[in-house]
Write a structure and sequence with these properties.
The complex is a heterodimer of chains A (313) and B (302). Helices cover 29% and strands 17% of the residues of chain A. With 313 residues, chain A is α/β, with parallel strands linked by helices. Among the domains of chain A are: 108 residues; 107 residues, no CATH class. In chain A, the strands form 3 sheets. Chain A has a 5-stranded antiparallel beta sheet with strand order 1-2-3-5-4. In chain A, strands 9-13-6-10 form a 4-stranded parallel beta sheet. A 4-stranded mixed beta sheet of chain A has the order 8-7-12-11, covered by helices on one side. In chain A, helix 2 crosses helix 4, helix 4 runs antiparallel to helix 5 and helix 5 packs across helix 6. Chain A is elongated. In chain A, 42% of the residues are buried. In chain B, helix 2 packs across helix 3, helix 2 packs across helix 4 and helix 3 packs across helix 6. Chain B folds into 3 domains: 101 residues; 81 residues, Double Stranded RNA Binding Domain (2-Layer Sandwich), CATH 3.30.160; 79 residues, ACT domain (Alpha-Beta Plaits, 2-Layer Sandwich), CATH 3.30.70.260. A 5-stranded antiparallel beta sheet of chain B has the order 1-11-12-10-13. Chain B has a 5-stranded mixed beta sheet with strand order 6-5-7-8-9. In chain B, strands 2-4-3 form a 3-stranded antiparallel beta sheet. Chain B is built from 9 helices and 13 strands. The chains are: A alpha/beta (313), B alpha+beta (302). At the A-B interface, helix 2, helix 4 and strand 4 of A face helix 8 of B.
């Protein structure tokens, strides 16, 4: 019997260490215990079982557990619906016209992994989590997106004339893509909104990276991009490998600032790097965004009224 | 304690779910240009190959064992000609014409229910687990090409040719280039005449493999009860998950949903292909979602 307990504990430790080591990337906080880790795509909500009147949490009360879990999953669904797919739409906008799809998304959320509080645990917290990968990604990534079409999207006007380099000339593009294992796009300072399928454009207005380069299967398994709030190579190695190409963003594009613009020479190099080795298959591109500000300025869940007019391109 | 049994509701939901048992599968094919081939022919052949590939991929997920390379190739050829009933729809994702040929990327929707029944009718669903011994005879003067075709069908179906055993299939080559086939099993005999040997072959063997005692005797019905959900939506989503475990479960039917203030439970009737695989899948899926389950033979309460 004791051997069985030890093996269960070991298995739990191994499982915990695995998830703890997974690349979390930029963790966007939502109110009331919600968070989206834009590295591995995990959406999670932690809720307390404590009663509204501040009484001790009733960790063994099944009704309290059900109430907390239902509220947490409702919040998680709201968070998923508010996620931007690209510059033009949110998950909510995409699935609102398809009743069956909306039901499927709700079903996946309602079936999400769930951690009960241990009986002797004081905190009395429950946790629900689901990843914007796999089955959920399969549902929320529109089938109309032309994955791996090889045809880069184009901005209606070239930015070449209208923009000047903000940080001086971009670094020399180098001798070619050989040797680079991925790409780090530094977008700090541009108030970028994370999205499931953003596009990186060159200054000439031509897409350098996005869904048009990666397969739907890769996007579902890895995410088209990951977001982080550090450019430290060690922290990003899991996603971009040992020798990533670093590129500074010149501008964020669109009313939600989901798409990014880099210099034309860098765009050419990014295209070449992403087409080499396994970079495209593993979506080896990380966008570095600003670190979350101090606690208490959490990003709230967007309400319909908060939505700006959809971007016109 | 308030307890609602939503059997009728669940049956309706199951019927709706059955109606939409088609999933899209993306395939990529390259069809080389051949001499005297028109662009339209090239395109049609590329599409037929794409449909066949999609059907093969789906079939592999459904089958309880692995198809070897030779059978996979034969099944692909079969699907290229006879695979239409299994295709529910398609979308051309990308098309690239070049001098050497045509590259097509297709999003193909497979009618899984039809395909599952087709594989059963063709005997592949059963023989992929255990080859079927049978006697197959043909006339000595049968053209070599026809003999090759017949031998291909034997391999595709998964028959192990033995003399003097039943079922016994015999082929005759009649007038007007028509084939006459006869299949004998115990005191039963089926006969068919057709100019298409493949059609004749599967028409007769479907009679054999669709006998009530074929697959059904190998695996009985089980009752799977899962509890611990907080919403009926979650149970319905698990219904889809369960149907997707096609290497473990041949058939799953949601028969009962039990809604109580503390949670939701549901019961399925399942016909198993691989009990230990199902057990592994259940253990990897349910506990991390705070769910528990019981799997018992029909009519046996644990």
């Amino acid at each position: 019997m004791s051997l069985r307990i030890i093996s269960v504990v070991m298995a739990a430790l191994l499982a915990f260490s695995g998830s703890a080591l997974a690349f979390q990337g930029y963790v966007q906080s939502f109110g009331d215990g919600g968070a989206i880790a834009w590295g591995n795509g995990e959406v999670s909500v932690v809720r307390s079982l404590a009663a509204d009147d501040g009484e001790e949490p009733a960790v063994t009360d099944p009704l309290a557990v059900r109430k907390a879990a239902s509220q947490a999953r409702k919040q998680m669904l709201d968070m998923i619906l508010s996620v931007r797919i690209d510059a033009k739409r949110t998950v909510s906008a995409y699935i609102s016209d398809d009743r069956e799809l909306a039901t499927r998304v709700r079903g996946v959320v309602q079936n999400s992994p769930f951690e009960r509080p241990a009986v002797f645990e004081d905190s009395g917290n429950i946790r629900v989590a689901e990843r914007l990968r796999g089955k959920l990604a399969e549902l929320v990534l529109p089938t109309t997106i032309q994955f791996q079409s090889g045809i880069p999207p184009k901005l209606s006007t070239s930015m070449e004339q209208s923009m000047s380099f903000e940080d001086g000339l971009p670094e020399e593009a180098g001798v070619g893509a050989r040797g680079y294992t991925g790409v780090i796009i530094d977008a700090r300072g541009y108030k970028v909104t994370p999205a499931l399928a953003p596009v990186i454009y060159g200054q000439d207005g031509e897409g350098a990276y996005g869904a048009f380069l990666v397969s739907r299967a890769s996007a579902i398994a890895k995410g088209v991009v990951a977001y982080a709030n550090t450019s430290a190579p060690a922290a990003l190695r899991e996603r971009v490998g040992d020798r990533p190409l670093s590129v500074r963003v010149l501008s964020a594009y669109g009313s939600w600032r989901t798409d990014l613009i880099i210099s034309s020479p860098m765009a050419r190099l990014v295209r070449a790097v992403m087409r080499s080795g396994d970079a495209m298959e593993n979506c080896r591109l990380v966008i570095v965004v600003d670190a979350p500000e101090t606690a208490g300025v959490d990003v709230g869940i967007l309400q319909e009224g908060d939505m700006p007019v959809e971007e016109q391109e | 304690m308030m307890r609602k049994r939503l059997v009728i509701f669940v049956l309706l939901i199951s019927l709706c779910a059955t109606a939409s048992l088609a999933l899209a599968r993306e395939v990529r094919v390259f069809k080389p240009m051949e001499e005297d081939m028109s662009p339209m022919q090239l395109r049609n052949e590329a599409m037929a190959e794409g449909f066949a590939l999609a059907a093969i991929e789906e079939a592999k997920l459904m089958l309880a064992g692995d198809l070897d390379e030779v059978r996979t190739d034969l099944l692909k050829k079969y699907f290229m000609v006879h695979g239409k009933p299994y295709i529910q729809g398609y979308r051309i994702v990308a098309s690239e014409a070049m001098d050497a040929g045509l590259i097509l990327r297709l999003d193909v929707r497979i009618n899984r229910k039809a395909l599952r029944e087709g594989l059963k009718r063709m005997g592949i669903a059963a023989t992929v687990v255990q080859p079927q011994a049978a006697t197959v005879t043909w006339p000595e003067d049968l053209p070599e090409e026809a003999v090759t075709e017949l031998q291909g069908l034997v391999v595709l179906t998964g028959l192990q040719s033995e003399e003097g055993v039943q079922p016994a299939f015999s082929l005759e080559y009649g007038p007007e280039k028509a084939y006459k086939g006869r299949l004998v099993l115990d005191d039963r005999e089926w006969m068919s005449i057709n100019k298409d040997m493949t059609a004749l072959w599967f028409e007769l063997w479907a009679r054999f493999f669709n006998r009530n005692d074929a697959a059904e005797s190998r695996s009985g019905m089980m009752r799977l009860a899962v509890s611990g959900w907080f919403s009926p939506d979650a149970a319905l989503e698990f219904d889809r998950v369960l149907r997707g475990w096609e290497r473990a479960v041949q058939e799953a039917r949601l028969v009962e949903m039990d809604m109580q203030p503390t949670g939701v439970g549901a019961t399925w009737e399942v016909r198993l292909l691989d009990a230990s695989r199902l057990d592994t899948l259940l253990k990897s899926f349910l506990p991390q979602r705070g769910l528990s389950y019981q799997l018992a033979k029909e009519g046996v309460e644990e």
